Amino acid sequence: MINFKKEISKQISNTIKIDENQLENYIEIPKDANNGDYAFPCFKLAKELKKSPQLIADEIKQKIELDEQIIEKVEVIGGYLNFYINKSKLIEEVLKEINEKKEEYGSSKEGNGKNIIVEYSSPNIAKEFHIGHLRTTLIGAALYSTYKYLGYNTIGINHLGDYGTQFGKMIEGYKRWGSEYNLEENPIENLTKLYIRINNLCKEDEKVLELCRENFKKLEEKDPYCVEIWNKFKTLSLKEFNKTYELLGVKFDSQNGEAFYADKTKEVIDLLKKSGKLEESQGAEIVDLSEKGMPPCIITKSNGSSIYATRDLAAILYRARTYDFDKCIYVVAYEQNLHFKQIFEVAKYLGLDKKYTDGLIHVPFGMVRLSTGRMSTREGNVVKVNDLLNEAIDRVKNIIEEKNPNMEEKEENAKKIGIGAVIFNSLSTTLIKDQIFDWDTILNFQGETGPYIQYIYVRTKSVIEKAGYIPDLENIDYALLEDKESYNVLKTIYNFNNILKQVIEKNETSFLARYLIELAQNYSNFYNENKIICDDKKIQDARVYLSYCVGNVLKIGAKLLGINMPNKM
């Protein structure tokens, strides 16, 4: 398709001799469609050209040579240049592109030859998979899908929390009370009870905590008994986690957790010693980061055990060598901001190419909190993801029974709608914001929600079913889609690829979620203002084809977020 922003930036560049790529980044889409399809704020150039924005705008308008096949006109309004695209050309570009690419509309090959690692989910073994883990899982899966859709070679990694002092605690708890818990039945629930019990005992008795630390040291040294119990915990946990991943439709290319890197930490220590950055502090080994305004990064504890920072550094080395990554993205809550700043800084001392250290990216997100306060596995006040998803499905079933009891595929549709509601709720707000977990908000099927997008998609399907056909593109009269409502829909569809680029530029899934709401609302306005199935075959063809295009894009965008579309609602 024609890149209209690029065309505009070229035209402006020809008049003021400033790089067109710089100018393209300044171009905006006006909130009010009456102010054109694109706007160029001349305020950005006032300092550089030493002129007022209004004068710059007037001079550009006088000099610019418009290709009226692409840009119909340009107007100056208060220091802005407002560009109006040739409607017929935009409509033609969108419809031809959808006709050609169909279910791959908006995809590209821009990422060819580039390797992107996305690390997400990463639950702790032997602990409940609760809604605190849900956001990283869903954000990461959506980023993974979007990068892949734009042609990047994407590697999804589930960096399991399967190592550390907590496993020393679990092993100690199992030694003491293992026979009291049936781990084959409700393994995570029973392991959580065991963890809470041993954790409480550790608070009361420092000697027990010391035994737990010794257990972990033995695990690091491959003590057969400790390794056997640890493997048991891991196998049972993964079996349970996979049930959740299956419900959510989430997959990974690697599930190498912390333990995988345990025997690779020695090289990290050796490289840091070689760099002269490793120093002793109170029996531990650290890298001093005071010059960077950060506390020291602990590399080994005073008892010689590695710490998760060391294992993260070992993972960076391994991933650079194994995957030759251009970006290594960590989708982890903002509470870990300092940790990632520290390890990204220390990674610079490992002798890696700058390409790799520059490609380390932390995507922080807000915590999910209960209305009563923060969740904690230790305190036992968590909401389990499987319970949440099954509750969502059951609530949708009740709504279906009440409003459409004869619906076909009730079970499957309830699953798609219920899980879709949960996914959209997690991804539609700016990621960095905290979320308060609230049933009524998650399952509110009115307004800007996942079920609303699904409802509009089903409406487009219904239009096509009533028509009984999808028209051929050569039968579409573009002029019949130049009315305000139709054109707003088509402009939104045109912007789809640009939105996907914004998602990966900012690693922000809410851009796509909000886009889908906008497209659904614009189609709803079109649907309410226009009779689609009518006596005039040419009008019907144009409007049915527009409905097909909307349904296609809604389905693609929802799938990238991890949401499946129902056939009926």
Summarize the structure in words.
This protein is of the alpha/beta class. Among the domains are: 82 residues, Arginyl tRNA synthetase N-terminal domain (Gyrase A, domain 2, 2-Layer Sandwich); 256 residues, 3-Layer(aba) Sandwich (Rossmann fold). 54% of the residues lie in helices and 9% in strands. The protein has 22 helices and twelve strands. The strands form four sheets. Strands 5-4-9-10 form a four-stranded parallel beta sheet, with helices on both faces. A hairpin with a 2-residue loop joins β6 and β7. α12 packs across α13. The longest helix is centred in the middle third of the chain and has 25 residues. The model has no long low-confidence stretch (mean pLDDT 92).
Structure keywords:
4-stranded parallel beta sheet, alpha/beta, 9% strand, 569 residues, Rossmann fold
Average residue-wise pLDDT? 92
Major sheet: arrangement of strands: 5-4-9-10
In the predicted model, the low-confidence regions spanning at least 5 consecutive residues are: none
Q: What would you call the shape?
A: globular
Helix segment count? 22
Assign the structural class, choosing from mainly alpha, mainly beta, alpha/beta, alpha+beta, or little secondary structure: alpha/beta
CATH class of the domain at 115-370: Alpha Beta
CATH architecture of the domain at 115-370: 3-Layer(aba) Sandwich
CATH topology of the domain at 115-370: Rossmann fold
Oligomeric state as shown: single chain
Secondary structure tally: strands? 12
Separation, N- and C-terminal Cα atoms: 34 Å
Major sheet summary line: 4 strands, parallel
